[in-house]
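Per reviewer request, we include the raw input and output of the structure prediction for the construct analysed in the revised manuscript.
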Amino acid sequence: MLSEKEMEFSYNTIEALRQHPDIARFADWLATKPPGYQPLSRPKR
């Protein structure tokens, strides 16, 4: 989603990361999960 250079220069704080629409959407989704949430792993093909 973001390159290492983008993270280094533009998204190097939590506040800046929360401004990225995709990361903010993921963080909002993750906040609805209970503590210790472990997603089911997909079977390998």
